[in-house]
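Input/output pair, single chain:
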Amino acid sequence: MDLRLTRGFGTGDIETIGLSPAVLMVEVAPEKSEDVEAVLRMHSVRGRFTCTAEPPGGRFLVAIDDSSDLDSLREALETAEGIDECGGLSGCRRDPYAVRDLVEELHRRREDALARKDLDTLEDEVALGLYGDEDW
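Output:
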């Protein structure tokens, strides 16, 4: 199984309430794609992330937003990795910590993006003059 982060979390502008989602590309052996798709879709409901299959078979885009449960995503990816096992594009040279490390990186990136969004919102509000005229 190959995992790649194709787009990180984005902060958007002042009208955007949340973050724009991060997108993860998951590639598995085509003959395992139906089983992997079932696992990803099952976990997507509980984990609040979206999963879409990309042609050709064996490629999926997973979109993660600021409310997604990254533990459910980790479980889904670990299960998918077990299904794909040595039939994936990388062969049997899989890193046993790749999924865990990726999910930790997603968590860190999401926290950074949320902090950046909060700071940008505060700066926009100050620039609009929403603060400073209060009577004490």
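The chain has three helices and four strands. The chain has a mean pLDDT of 83.
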